[in-house]
Inverse folding.
């Protein structure tokens, strides 16, 4: 469910471009990239998205050597509506 949403965000040209989606289960990561279809991370991009998400009430984890990636880690016991709410907030953060 979450990976599919991330892949739909990556394909959505009206959102901040994301790529390099990776991980298993409830721990997934992705990069903010230069352009749609690119795999080149934008170092300040992840910081901007995590800050905007925080303003919206969603806590995201920056990770990587230079905090170029965003990590999602939600409890396996999280309800589907709660996870959906978090993904909607992430989508809003990617619109900024």
């Amino acid at each position: 469910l979450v990976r599919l949403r991330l892949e739909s965000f990556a394909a959505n040209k009206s959102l901040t471009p994301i790529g390099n989606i990776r991980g298993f289960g409830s721990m997934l990561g992705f990069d903010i990239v230069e352009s749609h279809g690119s795999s080149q991370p934008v170092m300040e991009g992840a910081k901007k998205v995590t800050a905007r998400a925080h303003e919206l009430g969603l806590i995201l984890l920056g990770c990587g050597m230079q905090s170029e990636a965003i990590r999602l880690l939600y409890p396996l016991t999280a309800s589907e509506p709660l996870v959906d709410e978090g993904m909607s907030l992430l989508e809003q953060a990617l619109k900024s």
Q: What stands out?
A: Strands lie at 18-24, 27-32, 61-63, 69-73. The chain has a mean pLDDT of 93. The CA atoms of residues 15 and 44 lie 16 Å apart.
